[in-house]
Write a structure and sequence with these properties.
twelve-stranded parallel β-barrel; 2 helices; globular
Length: about 700
Amino acid sequence: MKKSTLSIISAMTILSLSFSTNVFAGSDHTTAISATTTTEVSNSIGVEYRGHIQNTGDYPLDNTWIQGPTELGTEGQGLRLEGFWIELTGTVPENAHIEYQVHVQNEGWMDWVSDGEFAGTRDKSQRIEAIRIRLVDDDGNALSGYSVEYRGHIQDQGDTEWVSDGAELGTTGLNRRLEALEIQIIQSDANNTDSEDQSSDDDTTDEPTSPGSAIASPTSTIAIDKEFSNREQNASYDDSAATHAVFNGTDIQVTGAGATAENGILTITSEGTYVVTGNLTEGQIRVETTDTEKVQLVLNGVTIHNSSSAPIYLKSADKVFITLAEGTTNTLTDGSEYIQIDDNTVDAVIFSKADLAINGTGTLNITANYKHGIVSKDDLVITSGNFNISSVKAALNGKDALKIKDGVFNISSSDGKGLSSKNDSDTTKGYVYIAGGTFNISNCTEGIEGTAIVIEGGDIDVTATDDGLNAASETTTDTATSETTETAQMPDGQAPGGGGGMMAADTNAYIAIAGGAIKLNAAGDGIDSNGNLYVSGGTIFVSGPTSDGDGALDYDGTADVSGGTIVLAGSSGMAQSFSSTSTQASLLYNLTTKATAGTEISLKDADGKVLVSFTPEKAYQSVVISTPEMSIGSTYTLTTGSQTAEIEQTAMVTSNGNTQGGPGGTRPDGGNRPDPGATPTTPPTETAV
């Protein structure tokens, strides 16, 4: 962040209390380089804020407010931010509010507060690790015509890029403090207001709310839609005008029009809002409307079990919105075998043939004993909610697209993917897009799989028996369980006709990461793209494979890094570096001896400053590192337990040993696979410590 002095009043106050004026840094940033579509910094609405800082207390000390986008906090002094007050200033529309939420050490995500209320803790010595900020109107919808942007300084990572409109800034689960914060209000080109008639405003969209703009592969035909409509995000409903259904065992009582109940099945046949509550011990909610009608289904504290089919079956509609009512817990379970009743192959606890959007602040518990958790044969869009999903196969699957703006996801899939999107009939579809959210995928084969995977925000933690992230085109039949058929590899990890154990690149498949905190523990490849890989932001830590037949990084096209903080640890047999076409420096280092699980990786610059550190959960012998601070011509010290190495960054991509580079990758041997039994290239000198 750029520096400037504080206001005269604040500076005088600091001097009077023997503080140095360079302790707290400001910003002279006056124009926005925005990730969203914007016009200019707003002249009508402004923002001001105060903070509670370690060893200092409430700041500014004279109880004044810092005007945005001036920086609040410190850099390089190891002082944590512990709390905030944020409010709008200037010419503020009557219906405008600023809301903010903080993730606090030992507390997690705290409740949203607004308009000058305090968020965080005081006098508990607990760091703020992440923050979300958004502008809303009186009804809680995104404020039309304006955007809030914010950036910060994070322990061990340095300055972040600008993020906006509710996106997560910071990290969770990495024990890193937020040390500084800047906020500004932007006047946007968009003027998206919600219609009074919610059924007509589904095509109205907010500006993309992701914290960064991911790079799209120029060879891919995948068309990624990053927008979320107002109605997809709006969890409100008119309870007095809705049709209500109350479940009691196998009995269903319906009040209102558009739905009927028979033999434990609630059938919805008309457009409208339907609120369901109670316990259905054996039954189903079924939606059968025309393909021009929209249905909002409100789960208001409901439990549904179906031993032979989906508890919720969305057979036909234009679009269905499932709202998880505030403060409610909703539970859906199925049996281990399904009986098919029509031409559709129903195979998920929530199965939809229509576009499906899920929102709300309630909780949805799903136990999928047959196959999948939630499947849509069109788009599956989730904008909020709390999800606990245990499934045999994929937890979340959208054939055309899986798009997630926010939410908390606890996922365990015993024999399937965590998140998945594939389409074998349309090469423009089949992608996973993540703008935000918290994902704990504790058990799965692949953590996230799609023809394209685009991540621009969120806190993602994956433990996978195969790949952490996997981009590959669908080549088999149209089922949510189908797998990508890949060219068989040779026993030693080689592929016919090429080095690196790779197939020919899949031009449609790619992974693009522009934000978020990603932690992968993969028994197979950590990050696996059958096509290209682009990293332009975010934090990525990989505990990769111990088998030499897999790698922490595996790609068949190019792998360009232009931003972000990355540490990939894994086996050395199939190790790949980033491509030489990258614009951010990186290194690959193969250790002379394998490091045991729990051995910290640390990279320091010539001044002894730690640029990045990470402790892998498994043994490793190869490390790939890239950070914004690395540059050609500099020398770094890599420490892994008792092994240290001085590494000179002689090129954009520096490596030692027999690295297996894909097209554009780096190999000291000129790109040829070494002869069996050949002596590896001599690595830089290591010194035991």
